[in-house]
Design goal:
heterodimer, A: mainly alpha, 2 strands, B: mainly alpha, two-stranded antiparallel ribbon, 5 helices
């Protein structure tokens, strides 16, 4: 390839060639506890799950249950069947190798320990997603993967682009997660159980009352997580993460959570026209769109990101079907994709590490310097291209057979053909060209990668070859148990074969190879044409920024409107809402008048009432804050006198003391405030007076209505009888506070403490601000 | 407030009111009183002192910061609840031990978790109100 072309296409690359910051010092020690420890534990988990393979293959799912919140039917229940076992093995197996790889890749990075923690936490969350049987637990793990993914994408947190991409992924997938929670709750409540295994066993939900709603909510969760068009744009951006993360989260595991969810809910939700149409169309469009985009990229990591998108689309498309071939295709493709894609990502990481670039136009001729990497890449690339005898070939054959069986085969087969042909070409670009093609200007002299980084690609590549050579064993132990789990019933099996005879799928495969080869030869020209089309088409990623910007502005606007910071307005709003709701309740409940019986009132009652009224008048007439405060205190003391008159000494003492303290505290505050501005008071006084009178009248009305009702003495009688015999106290009020309703009191004193601390911080803050001004 | 009479009187009054607040706390289970009222009274005592001698002097007299007192109070209340938890009863079940007898009628006095809880309430109310008052007083 000519140098000038390289320069011409370089500026079209969306993301710049990555910084060297994420790379390690080759001499730094990498055998740290956090690196070796996490990968060892993950490897042990892999072995743990491996021992269940024969049991699961024999058709006996395993279930563990730990009660969590039994009153809400939320349990930590785990369900290991063919589907979850395949995922668990991929997560732990690839996880162990990726962690080892990362230990070397990021060796000497000042925050490597943090990275190892995030990665390990992600691994556990992902295991939780695929093993959880309880829907609520599944949701919790689901969001944990979102959260750990956020931390990992934003790992280079000094880079604003990295932070922005992390936030984008978080917002999109967490919003989908909330929809998913709603869907799960609907599903659980309408089915009477939150255990997915029981819901699946009970049969299909198609045609039930909430089916459509549940389907849309679950699909919203699955499509955002698995980056289906039009929610796809976060995934290529997520490549801001260090390469091991891209290999692990954004190709082999986390993005497959959406696919897993569709597979897991397949017995309950599949089969309806809605399911078939939505999954076929979204999946196919994603697959074809992504494979064109993959061809268009020059950054190899971006290329792989888009091929991952293509794989996710393909998986969703095949899960639309319910026939044995369609599901077998999905499960076989899932397995082979995880193996070769993780391998290729890790290979790209090694190349990047060794040469300092990932630009497809520059890379070439690395075979001599990096023979083992070249071999590992070749093995993964052949699996990706679908060449026999690799498992990728079988996956493609089964996929074509499945596509031919589907309802929308006329649509699905051509889409699959285009996607697979493009995949063939991209495999050439990623796995052949950097090693055998012409070499460009490399920032570094290439060298072979160290063994901890080579182990993953080599093992994963070998698996792709071995599984392809032993299709019978692979099918019996891994694929068919998963297919049975997805279909919810034992399947006939026997579809995974290296040689299925001369048939239509084989013919389609040959067409794929021919077409793919042609595209590979012409890929430079195609790439430029694609870049031109891309420049004209709307950019969803940029629209996202616009949307977010608009959303933030909206929030700011409405906050400014509601939260004015003027205490008077808050109080007005609070009392107005109170008055309106009480009035509406009184009217709708048909509350009538009340008969005021003033005959029984003696001199004392009249005296206290006069005192309270006098206090109120004083507050209204004075222009001094202190005098108003004294008026309010008078009102309070009047109320305390009422309590004394009706023999409630505890309440009376409390009221008296609180009044006293309020007056003292307010006086301390008021002393420091200026005199009331008469004009300001006048301006507000009319609406305030109306509201005050309304609240006063309504409260009185409600109180009189309450007093008019016959008094229910049951609680009083209980406390009178029980406070001595059960709580050994004669003061009922105190016994209620410290014994019968201790938890309430505890909550209240916690509130007292929080309020005091809040006011303390506020006042201290004001003082600090004042001192700063000086 | 620079008044010798008030300052001299306050010193006497503070001690009286403070002892009275403890009295109210302890009698609360049978007669009007309890942790809440006691705490309010205790706060009144120290507020009088603070008005007479200033918040700095009062802080010195208290030795522990009022926020600290409130937090310790909440901790004590929580411990009173946890105690029953360790004894195998539901959270916050009152625990009673009789001294000099085996029931309320025969025992000379009792040791119980309910009073411990009330002491916690007392300290939270005392500390909370004092921290508020001091913050107001010191805000100039």
């Amino acid at each position: 390839m000519s140098r000038s072309l390289a320069h011409e296409t370089a500026h079209l690359t969306r993301s710049p060639t990555p910084t060297m910051a994420e790379h390690s010092d080759p001499n730094a020690p990498w055998k740290t506890l956090s690196g070796i420890g996490t990968s060892a534990i993950t490897a042990a988990l892999f072995l743990f799950f491996l021992q269940y393979v024969p049991t699961i293959a024999a058709g006996e799912p395993v279930r563990w249950v730990i009660p969590w919140i039994p009153s809400l039917d939320v349990n930590l229940s785990f369900w290991l069947d063919g589907l979850s076992l395949m995922f668990a093995l991929l997560i732990t197996g690839i996880g162990a190798m990726v962690m080892l790889y990362a230990a070397k890749y990021l060796a000497g990075h000042p925050q490597y320990d943090r990275f190892a923690l995030y990665l390990f936490a992600f691994m556990l969350s992902m295991l939780g997603v695929v093993l959880a049987d309880n829907l609520i637990a599944l949701f919790v793990f689901w969001e944990l993967t979102t959260f750990t993914s956020y931390l990992l994408i934003g790992f280079s947190h000094a880079d604003p682009k990295s932070r922005r991409n992390a936030l984008q992924a978080l917002l999109l997938t967490a919003t989908g997660g909330l929809a998913l929670l709603a869907g799960f709750i609907l599903m659980g409540v309408s089915q009477g159980t939150f255990e997915m295994s029981q819901i699946n066993a009970a049969g299909s939900l198609v045609g039930q009352e909430f089916y459509t709603l549940i389907l849309f909510l679950v699909l919203a969760g699955a499509f955002t997580k698995s980056a289906q068009v039009p929610f796809h744009f976060w995934l290529p951006n997520a490549m801001a993460a260090p390469t091991p993360v891209s290999a692990y989260l954004h190709s082999a595991t986390m993005v497959k959570a959406g696919v897993y969810l569709l597979a897991r809910t397949h017995p309950a939700l599949s089969g309806s026209d809605l399911w078939i149409w939505i999954l076929s169309i979204f999946g196919a469009v994603t697959a074809v769109f992504a494979s064109f985009m993959a061809l268009r990229q020059t950054d190899l990591k971006q290329t792989l990101a888009y091929t991952t998108l293509m794989a996710l689309g393909t998986l969703v498309m095949f899960l639309a079907g319910s026939t044995g071939y369609a599901i077998t295709a999905a499960m076989t493709f899932l397995l082979v994709h995880s193996l070769y894609k993780a391998g290729l990502f890790l290979t790209i990481g090694i190349i990047d590490h060794a040469t300092g670039t990932r630009d497809a136009n520059l890379l070439g001729g690395l075979k001599k310097a990096m023979p083992i990497t070249a071999m590992a890449a070749a093995v993964a690339g052949l699996a990706m291209a679908g060449i026999p005898p690799f498992l990728g070939f079988i996956a493609k054959e089964v996929a074509y057979a499945g596509a031919l069986e589907m309802h929308l085969w006329l649509f699905v087969v051509p889409m699959a053909l285009i996607a697979f042909a493009l995949m063939f070409a991209v495999a050439g670009i990623v796995a052949y060209k950097p090693f055998y093609g012409p070499q460009g200007d490399l920032p570094h002299e290439p060298h072979e990668g160290p063994w901890p980084m080579l182990l993953g690609p080599v093992v994963l590549g070998s698996c792709g070859l071995l599984f392809g050579l032993m299709p019978g064993l692979t099918a019996y132990y891994l694929i068919e148990p998963a297919v049975n789990a997805v279909m919810g019933a034992p399947d006939t099996g026997g579809r995974v074969k290296l040689w299925a005879g001369f048939n239509l799928p084989l013919l389609l495969s040959l067409i794929t190879f021919a077409l793919g080869f042609l595209i590979y030869l012409k890929h430079q020209a195609l790439r430029e044409r694609l870049a031109r089309i891309e420049a004209k088409s709307p950019d969803l990623d940029a629209s996202w920024d616009v949307f977010l910007d608009w959303f933030v502005r909206f929030s700011k606007g409405q906050t400014g409107l509601i939260q004015t910071g003027v205490l008077r307005q808050y109080m007005f709003a609070t009392f107005a809402v109170f008055a309106v709701t009480v009035l509406i309740t009184l009217i709708t409940r048909g509350a009538g008048g009340v008969n005021l019986n003033l005959a029984g009132l003696g001199l004392m009652e009249w005296g206290i009432s006069l005192l309270i009224a006098a206090g109120t008048v004083l507050v209204l007439l004075t222009s001094s804050r202190i005098t108003a405060l004294v008026g309010l205190g008078t009102v309070g003391i009047g109320v305390a006198l009422i309590f004394i008159a009706y023999s409630a000494p505890d309440v009376a003492i409390t009221q008296l003391l609180v009044e006293l303290l309020v007056v003292v505290l307010l006086a301390l505050a008021l002393l420091k405030m200026p005199y009331l501005d008469k004009g300001n008071v006048q301006k507000h006084s009319f609406p305030n007076a109306v509201l005050a009178i309304a609240v006063g009248v309504l409260t009185t009305w409600v109180l009189l209505l309450v007093v008019d009702q016959p008094f229910d003495r049951r609680l009083t009688e209980f406390f009178e009888a029980a406070s001595w015999t059960q709580a050994f106290g004669r003061n009922i009020v105190n016994v209620i506070l410290v014994d019968f309703r201790t938890l309430d009191t505890f909550g209240e004193i916690a509130v007292v403490l929080i309020a005091a601390l809040g006011a303390f911080v506020l006042l201290k803050g004001m003082r600090a601000a004042k001192e700063e001004k000086k | 407030m620079n008044s010798i009479i008030f300052t001299a009187g306050a010193r006497l009054l503070v001690a009286l009111v403070f002892v009275f607040s403890l009295f109210m706390l302890l009698r609360g289970h049978h007669l009007p009183g309890g942790g809440f009222i006691g705490g309010l009274l205790g706060a009144v005592a120290f507020i009088i002192y603070s008005l007479a001698c200033g918040p700095e002097e009062t802080r010195r007299a208290l030795r522990v910061s009022p926020e600290g007192i409130a937090v310790i109070g909440l901790g004590i209340a929580l411990l009173a609840g946890l105690f029953s938890f360790f004894m195998g009863d539901p959270f916050f079940t009152g625990q009673w031990y009789w001294v000099g007898g085996d029931s309320y009628e025969t025992a000379a006095f009792s040791i119980n978790s309910v009073l411990v809880f009330d002491i916690g309430v007392y300290l939270v109310v005392l500390g909370g109100i004092l921290s508020l008052t001091f913050a107001f007083e010191e805000e100039t």
